[in-house]
Specification:
Strand content: 25-35%
Structural class: alpha+beta
Shape: globular
Largest sheet: 13 strands, mixed
CATH topology: Carbonic Anhydrase II
Bound molecules: zinc ion
CATH architecture: Roll
Number of domains: 1
Number of strands: 15
CATH class: Alpha Beta
């Protein structure tokens, strides 16, 4: 199964995604004037009708996010190996999320393929569910290989201790669209859990154009944030989570890590 999926990925067409992904796809949509939202007539149920190249949002069979349940236990040789460097504190509000664009030099290796970190951003509540339950937040690390394949790491955030790395982002995030500079550098590694067990499946961007062919890794162990940190983000983005999509024919793997 793995080898055939990898073969598929090597040939997946991701040209339309250009330099960014996930919520960065939103940037391109805004640039072309197409407005989309998380509710109402331009909400997730209608994304596929808003523009011709958003049709995957409607007819795609490998869409993200999923309710993570009934996963098949699997062993994959090498762990997901991140080498994320501390980032300059440039923090963007793109109208759909808070995003930190990564400087060159950070990467993750997944099943022998290296992907460069492009950016990371946040959703409230979580987009993936764990056996039907959402988390307070979800962090997405968007990575791209030299061949143009995309791999996203998802991290659940649950209520608990305040997270210092999250504070470097949330203390400086702009309340409206635009970029701000924070006081301290941002360490992406501090936003990853210590436990490296994960769920793996093949999915899509969770924002228009909902392009498919992405390798998804969602870590099982959540990181924590304080109630005040969650509320600070929720004040800006009451709901920026796409509803869960059908799994269809896909395998969902549960990997010990
Ligand atoms: Zn995302």
């Amino acid at each position: 199964m793995q080898s055939s999926r990898r073969h598929f990925l090597k040939h997946a067409t991701l040209g339309a995604v250009a330099a960014c992904a996930c919520c960065a796809g939103a940037g391109a949509a805004l640039a072309s004037g197409v407005h989309w939202t998380y509710e109402g007539e331009e909400g997730p149920e209608h994304w596929g009708d808003l523009q011709a190249d958003f049709k995957s949002c409607k007819i795609g069979l490998e869409q993200t996010p999923l309710d993570l349940k009934g996963a098949v236990k699997a062993t994959i040789g090498a762990p997901v190996a991140t080498d994320y460097k501390v980032q300059p504190p440039k923090i963007l509000n793109n109208g759909h999320t808070i995003q930190v664009n990564a400087a060159p030099g950070s990467s993750v290796t997944i099943e022998g393929e290296s992907y460069d970190l492009l950016q990371f951003h946040f959703h409230h509540p979580s987009e993936h569910l764990l056996s039907g339950k959402p988390f307070e937040l979800e962090v997405h690390f968007v990575n791209k290989s030299a061949a143009g394949n995309l791999a996203v790491l998802g991290v659940f955030v649950t209520l608990g201790e305040a997270n210092p790395a999250l504070e470097t982002v949330f203390s400086a995030m702009p309340a409206s669209e635009g970029e701000a500079t924070g006081k301290a550098p941002i360490d992406p590694t501090a936003l990853l859990p210590k436990g490296r067990g994960y769920f793996r499946y093949y999915g899509s961007l969770t924002t228009p154009p909902c392009s498919e062919g992405l390798v998804w890794t969602v870590f099982k162990e959540p990181i924590t944030a304080s109630k005040a940190q969650v509320e600070a983000f929720a004040k800006l983005f009451e709901n920026n989570a796409r509803p869960v999509q059908r799994q269809n024919h896909r395998y969902l793997l549960d990997v010990a890590g």
